[in-house]
Structure formats: structure tokens, C-alpha cells
Design goal:
Blueprint: H1 2-16, H2 18-29, E1 30-35, E2 42-43, E3 49-61, H3 69-80, H4 84-91, E4 98-104, H5 106-115, E5 120-121, E6 124-129, H6 137-140, E7 142-143, E8 149-151, H7 152-156, H8 158-162, E9 166-171, E10 184-187, E11 194-197, H9 201-218, E12 222-228, E13 235-241, H10 260-263, H11 273-282, E14 291-294, E15 297-300, E16 303-306, E17 314-317, H12 318-324, H13 327-337, H14 339-348, H15 377-382, H16 391-402, E18 406-408, E19 413-417, E20 423-425, E21 431-433, H17 437-448, E22 468-475, E23 488-496, E24 503-510, H18 518-537
Parallel strand pairs: 2-11
Antiparallel strand pairs: 1-9, 2-3, 3-4, 3-5, 3-6, 7-8, 9-10, 11-19, 12-13, 12-24, 14-17, 15-16, 18-21, 19-20, 22-23, 23-24
Helix pairs in contact: 3-4, 3-5, 9-18, 11-13, 11-14, 11-17
Length: 553
């Protein structure tokens, strides 16, 4: 009977349950490890790293091999700076894998190895770091604990940066060590591609310092600076404040993790007057010397409009309307342009649609089609209210004027870098002729008057250089169908040198409290940043003198 029972049990083990035990044995013997691909580096235009991956170690436990979790936790807790109770919980159980700490430094990994604890291993890992901290963090973005891109270009280019993970299958003995002659099958990981940006690190740093200081000085909600090459659309600096340090996201608020330069839409104010004037010039409706009578107020569409400052009847030229930033003058010009033409030029300059710069979360802004306009839409659009835009769209508008009327899609990624270190450039940006070179030249001459003593932005002037630009001081919507009590947004955007523009710079301050006129709070930041950029890039003055502009008649 005993022999029969033994025989029956053998039949059960080797016959009926053979497959089950074979699978269990294989699971105990065979280990599978993911080989994480090295994430590609992100650099500025000169190759300086803005995001890179460094060697690290994971601290991993096999609880099934740990007989005394409390004792092991006592030893590990001070080394890993992890609470003892947390370690005891992770070390207890019959599972074979528990990651106690991710991407610690190699030194910490060596310290754990020195403890020689059964069931504790320190496999190689990697850690994403940002050498310059908050510098360009709104552009570069950040990754999560698993290494997945969650913001900025880390998110937009996740597939290219991440590469492809590999996998290793190997056999281990009872002690958990690999069997020398055991089965070993490895599929190597493929490293991710790198990104080379168009950003110039030094200019980015100067812009970030300047806007951070001005946000603090004016008690603004936020600020943005964009420096762009108008000829090719390359963004040399895109700085925002407040920012965040992607090395320590615990100190960042969720509101600071985006990029307001492309995601925050606001009513721009007078910087849009350049579209109104460009449309009128392009269609032969006016000249820079055209004469306008500007009353103290103007009734249109059932509403009454005023300029920022009270005045009697004025006699301004077209140039004077932009130099003094007259809302009423802009309305008079828009009346000649008409609804459909004004809308068409706003669209042609890039409003109501994403710029295509390639950053995640980009807003198209709001530009209603003509069939949805009310009686006051034309006059309000003429001076930059009644639509919403992003800072990047406004920078693109003035880059178009600087580039002889050719709009170039803004771009911030120069190319990808393969494992061979070679740069593969992205496709050339789209180019579109929006206004003629002659009209663009006239616009630059008109905008140069804005930075004279008679204009709204003499604070933007840089000694030795001719500056053309425009201020904007826009009412903020209060969320209840009006503007009362919501404050203002202040802007200055300009180009240097005015007669042969090499750079465009835009400064936006959201709801500054201590001063709110664009010429007062935004123009000085333009001067600081652009002065530095001109020196850094070696852009010399043209040594020409502007023609004397006639502002009144």
C-alpha cells in the first residue's frame, strides 16, 4: 500500500503536474531584466547640455530571499535615508522583486553593496539631470520617475529621446547569482537621439535674469521674453518667470510647469495696430504721411471709444498714430481696410492658429470669423482687443515685418543627433510672403518713430543702434464679460537694427502692479536683453540715420 501511494504520487508529480512544476521551476531559475535605453541629450545651439542622462543605480530587493526583514531594514534605512517602517513593508513577502530606491548615485550603490545583504542587489540604472537647473526649463521640460517625458521638448520628442529598451534573459542558481554556463539571451537597448536646440545659452540666461527681476519689481503675475532671428525663425531665447527647477519638481507649482509663451492666450493691445496699418499700406489705402483728424472720442457700433489719455482734437499722420499709439486713429484706419480684409491679414500674420514652433500645449488663441463679428469687433480688433494671442504669435508678427514681409514659422529645434554624433537637421521652416518688402520697409520706418522722444517707448533705445518697435498696454478680461478690475498686460516688441533687422525681441508682463504701460515696464527689459544679445552675437550698428518722421500736421 505504501509503495502504491508513492508510485501514485510520482505519477502525479512527473505526469499530471509535470507542466505546472516545470513552469514554476523555470520561473524560479530564469530571470528577465529590462535594459533601459540611454535617453538622448538636449543641448543648446553650441552643444552645451541642458538635459542629460548620467549613470545611477537602483536598489532592488528579492523579499523571498530575506528571512529577517526588520534586521535588513535597520541596516539599510540610514544608508538610503528611507523610513525603517517603509523598508520593512517592502522587504516582507514572497514576491521576488521590490525596488527600494530608484536612480541613486553610484556611491550610494557601492555603500549598499558593501553591506553584503542577501536578497539586495544594485543593478545599473540612469538618472536624468538638468545641469543648469531652471535655465530654459519651460522649453526643455522634465521627465517623470519612470523616465517618461512629461513636459516641454522632453514630452514633444519622447519617442526620439527615449530610444528603445532592450531585454536580458538569464538563469540563476539557488543563491540568486547567474549560472556561468546557463542560458543567456540579450537584446541590446538602442540609445535615444539627442536634440540640438536653436537656443543660445548666454542670451537665454540674460533674458531669464532680466524678466525674473522685472516680474519681482513690478509685482507681475508672470513675464516672458522671446529673442528671435527673423530671417530663419530660430528662437535664440525663450525665457519665462516664474520658472521651475526640473531637478526638484517638489518645489514647483503645477501652474509653473508649462510654457506661457505658447500656452497662455491674452488680449495683446496696441501691438496689433501694426497689422491694421500694414493692411492699409499693402492695399494702397494710406501712406506714412496720410493725414487723420483724431477727435477726443469716437462713436462706432453703438459704443464710444477713447485713447489711453484724454485729449482734444488732434491732427496726426499715419506715422503719428503708431508713434502716439492712438486707438481712435487705428479705428479710422481699420474703417478703410474693412472687416474681411482685416481678418484676412490677421490670419496671414499667424493669428487664430498655432505658430508651429513645436512646443506642447501651444494655443491657437482666439480670432472669431467675420460672420461672428458684432458691431464693435472691427474697432476693437483695430487696436488689439477682442482677440487673444500668444507671445510667440506676436513675436512672429514683428519678425515678419523685420524679414521684409516674409513670415517664417518659428522653430526651436535645430535637429536630432544620432549615435554617430552627426546632426540631422529638421526640415526647413515654412515661408510665406505676407506683405511686400516695400510695405515692410515703410512699417519699420514708422515703428522707428515709436522709440523717439515723441513716441511711447524711448526707454527701449540702445545707444548707437536704430530701434523699431511697438508698445502694447492691454486691458485684461475679468471673466465676466468686461475689463473692470482685471488690470493690464504690458508689452514691448522691437527689432534691431531698424534698417536691417538681425534680431527681434518681445517682452510681455502679465498684470504688473507697479507701473503697467508697455513703454514703462517692458521696454527697459528689451533694452537690457537686446543690448546683451547684440554684444554676444557681434552685431554692429549700421551707422545710418533715420529719416525725420512727420507725426502731426
Amino acid at each position: 500500500m505504501l509503495m502504491s501511494l508513492i508510485a501514485a504520487r510520482l505519477v502525479q508529480l512527473q505526469g499530471v503536474d509535470r507542466a505546472t512544476y516545470a513552469v514554476a521551476a523555470a520561473a524560479q531559475r530564469l530571470h528577465t531584466v529590462t535594459l533601459t535605453a540611454t535617453r538622448g541629450m538636449i543641448t543648446d545651439r553650441s552643444g552645451h547640455p541642458l538635459a542629460e542622462t548620467i549613470d545611477a543605480r537602483d536598489i532592488v530587493a528579492d523579499p523571498s530571499e530575506i528571512t529577517n526583514p526588520a534586521k535588513v531594514a535597520d541596516v539599510l534605512a540610514p544608508v538610503l535615508q528611507i523610513k525603517r517602517a517603509t523598508l520593512v513593508r517592502e522587504l516582507t513577502g514572497t514576491n521576488q522583486y521590490s525596488r527600494l530606491a530608484a536612480a541613486v548615485s553610484p556611491a550610494e550603490g557601492d555603500a549598499v553593496d558593501a553591506l553584503n545583504l542577501a536578497g539586495i542587489s544594485t543593478p545599473d540604472a540612469s538618472r536624468r539631470i538638468y545641469p543648469d537647473g531652471a535655465l530654459a526649463s519651460n522649453v526643455v521640460g522634465f521627465v517623470g520617475a519612470s523616465g517618461q517625458g512629461l513636459g516641454g521638448l522632453e514630452l514633444s520628442y519622447q519617442r526620439q529621446l527615449a530610444g528603445r529598451n532592450g531585454v536580458a534573459h538569464y538563469e540563476v542558481g539557488a543563491n540568486g547569482a547567474p549560472i556561468p554556463d546557463g542560458r543567456d539571451l540579450t537584446t541590446a537597448a538602442k540609445a535615444g537621439e539627442g536634440l540640438r536646440l536653436t537656443l543660445q545659452r548666454d542670451i537665454q540666461f540674460e533674458a531669464q535674469q532680466a524678466i525674473t527681476a522685472q516680474v519681482k519689481a513690478t509685482h507681475a503675475l508672470s513675464g516672458t521674453v522671446i529673442v528671435m532671428n527673423p530671417r530663419n525663425g530660430q528662437v535664440l531665447a525663450l525665457a519665462v518667470a516664474p520658472g521651475f527647477d526640473p531637478n526638484d519638481l517638489s518645489k514647483a507649482s503645477s501652474a509653473d510647469l508649462g510654457d506661457p509663451a505658447v500656452s497662455d492666450a491674452y488680449e495683446p493691445g496696441s501691438v496689433i495696430k501694426s497689422v491694421t496699418v500694414s493692411a492699409a499700406l499693402q492695399n494702397g489705402l494710406v501712406t506714412p504721411k496720410s493725414k487723420f483728424v483724431i477727435p477726443s472720442s469716437l462713436s462706432y457700433g453703438g459704443s464710444r471709444f477713447h485713447d489711453a489719455e484724454n485729449h482734444g482734437t488732434e491732427h496726426l499722420t499715419l506715422t503719428g498714430i503708431l508713434a502716439y499709439s492712438s486707438n481712435i486713429g487705428a479705428i479710422e484706419i481699420a474703417k478703410r481696410v474693412g472687416d474681411q480684409r482685416l481678418y484676412d491679414y490677421l490670419r496671414a500674420f499667424g493669428f487664430g492658429q498655432p505658430t508651429g514652433v513645436g512646443l506642447p500645449g501651444e494655443s491657437a488663441g482666439v480670432l472669431l470669423p467675420v460672420d461672428q463679428w458684432s458691431g464693435t469687433t472691427l474697432p476693437t480688433l483695430a487696436f488689439g482687443q477682442g482677440l487673444s494671442v500668444t507671445a510667440m504669435q506676436v513675436a512672429s508678427l514683428y519678425s515678419t515685418i523685420a524679414n521684409n514681409g516674409v513670415r517664417v514659422t518659428p522653430n526651436i529645434v535645430e535637429g536630432t543627433i544620432g549615435s554617430n554624433g552627426q546632426l540631422k537637421r529638421v526640415a526647413a521652416p515654412h515661408r510665406q510672403q505676407v506683405i511686400s518688402p516695400d510695405v515692410a520697409a515703410k512699417m519699420r520706418q514708422i515703428l522707428e518713430s515709436v522709440t523717439t522722444n515723441e513716441g511711447t517707448a524711448p526707454a527701449a533705445r540702445i545707444p548707437g543702434y536704430r530701434i523699431a518697435g511697438k508698445t502694447g498696454t492691454a486691458n485684461r478680461a475679468n471673466g465676466h464679460g468686461g475689463y473692470t478690475g482685471a488690470g493690464y498686460d504690458a508689452t514691448f516688441v522691437g527689432m534691431v537694427p531698424a534698417d536691417d533687422p538681425k534680431l527681434v525681441c518681445e517682452v510681455v508682463l502679465e498684470r504688473p502692479i507697479r507701473g503697467y504701460f508697455g513703454g514703462l515696464v517692458a521696454a527697459p527689459v528689451f533694452k537690457t536683453v537686446m543690448s546683451f544679445a547684440l554684444r554676444t552675437l557681434g552685431i554692429a550698428p549700421t551707422f545710418t540715420k533715420p529719416a525725420k518722421a512727420k507725426l502731426t500736421w
